[in-house]
């Protein structure tokens, strides 16, 4: 349900950021987080648990943060800046997962949910205090635009879909979906895998999530910046897909938590590089006035994967086990790696001619 809601809301939210402002979008996302956690704490029935998901239509904190960074960064430095932004989310994954596991175990789920609401309130105050009110360069036309015109512009589907016509945008989206689907299936199924396959407790699962965050912290904080300064984005995209294929093969044959932990570092490396590079390529492929809408479309891709991922992952896991999920990642990413490598070699051959 969350994936379906955010699938359609992502592009509109991105358009809202382009028209109204990235700060307003980020503030709205933080406010939605507060409502989400309060409703979660008060949920006492299955129906209420579903109603509690409705604020997720506006819960786009990570894309909204990327929109702010995309507006304030130079195109040639965007990949590095987006990777540094990932440090914040990696830190949150480390502290939040560890603290969340302890809070659920010692104080209960309701107290943990209220803690999430308090943290989201702090986020909102920080946004209002430190993020510039205007992150894009305003033209005279934009300044005098009426509120009614802005509202119509936000819900103008044509203004969103036209971005797919820019050179390189559609192929990059195709790569993002095909290569990203298997790893997304594993991510959405990990809670089930952790409980049933690895037999982890909530506290132990929190430690594993913290380990994910540490790996992401190392990759995004110490590796992506130097890599983007040394190698082209197309080369890094190819590298991330190749490593993802290798990770899928190792996950297909893992038997215990220790073996899984060995795959976490290359897995996080491939995920971080893949997401940062594809987002950077897509935002640089459109005018600066449309970067928010493009990042909203990127978020909708992740929502699409989260929508179909549980169904596909559940079917594969129940009928064929964890092997099938890893093998699917190995096959799909291997095919994509060979395809991109062939395209790269063909371009070099044409350049030499």
How would you describe this protein?
- The chain contains 16 helices and no strands.
- Helix 4 runs antiparallel to helix 5, helix 5 runs antiparallel to helix 6 and helix 15 crosses helix 16.
- It starts with a helix and ends with a helix.
- The longest helix has 31 residues.
- The chain is mainly alpha-helical and 353 residues long.
Provide keyphrases for this structure.
353 residues, mainly alpha, 16 helices
Report the portion of residues in β strands. Answer: under 5%
Low-confidence stretches: 139-144
Helix/strand-derived category reads mainly alpha
Helix content: over 70%
Largest sheet: none
Tell me the number of helical segments per DSSP (H or I, 4 or more residues long): 16
Task: Give the radius of gyration.
Answer: 21 Å
Average pLDDT, all residues: 85
State the order of secondary-structure elements, H for helix, E for strand: HHHHHHHHHHHHHHHH
Distance between the termini: 52 Å
β-strand number: 0
Please state the overall shape, judged from the principal axes of the Cα atoms. globular
Question: What's the quick description here?
Answer:
The chain is an all-alpha fold. It has helices at 2-19, 22-42, 46-51, 61-72, 78-106, 109-130, 140-143, 147-154, 157-161, 169-197, 202-222, 224-230, 233-252, 257-284, 291-320, 322-352. It is built from 16 helices and no strands.
């Amino acid at each position: 349900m969350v994936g379906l809601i955010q699938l359609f809301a992502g592009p509109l939210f991105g358009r809202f950021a382009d028209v109204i402002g990235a700060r307003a979008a980020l503030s709205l996302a933080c406010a939605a987080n507060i409502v989400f956690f309060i409703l979660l704490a008060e949920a006492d029935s299955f129906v209420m648990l579903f109603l509690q998901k409705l604020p997720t239509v506006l819960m786009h904190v990570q894309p909204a943060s990327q929109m702010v960074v995309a507006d304030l960064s130079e195109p040639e430095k965007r990949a590095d800046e987006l990777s540094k932004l990932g440090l914040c989310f990696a830190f949150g994954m480390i502290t939040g997962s560890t603290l969340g596991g302890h809070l659920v175990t010692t104080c209960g789920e309701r107290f943990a949910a209220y803690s999430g609401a308090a943290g989201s309130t702090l986020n909102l105050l920080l946004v209002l205090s430190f993020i510039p009110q205007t992150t894009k360069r305003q033209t005279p036309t934009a300044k005098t635009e009426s509120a009614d015109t802005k509202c119509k512009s936000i819900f103008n589907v044509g203004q969103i879909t036209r971005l797919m016509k820019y050179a390189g945008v559609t192929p990059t989206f195709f790569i993002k979906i095909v290569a990203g689907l298997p790893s997304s299936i594993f991510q959405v199924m990990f809670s089930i895998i952790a409980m049933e396959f690895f037999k982890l407790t909530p506290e132990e699962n929190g430690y594993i999530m913290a380990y994910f965050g540490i790996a992401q912290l190392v990759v995004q904080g110490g590796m992506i910046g130097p890599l983007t300064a040394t190698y082209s984005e197309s080369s890094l995209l190819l590298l991330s897909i190749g490593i993802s294929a290798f990770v899928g093969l190792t996950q297909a044959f893992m038997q215990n938590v220790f073996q899984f932990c060995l795959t976490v570092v290359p897995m996080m490396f491939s995920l971080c590089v893949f997401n940062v590079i594809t987002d950077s390529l897509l935002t640089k492929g459109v005018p600066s006035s449309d970067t928010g809408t493009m990042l909203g479309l990127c978020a909708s891709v992740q929502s699409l994967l989260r929508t179909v991922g549980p169904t596909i992952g559940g079917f594969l896991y129940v009928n064929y086990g964890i092997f099938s999920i890893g093998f699917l990642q190995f096959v799909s990413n291997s095919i994509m790696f060979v395809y991109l490598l062939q395209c790269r070699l063909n371009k070099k051959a044409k350049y030499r001619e």
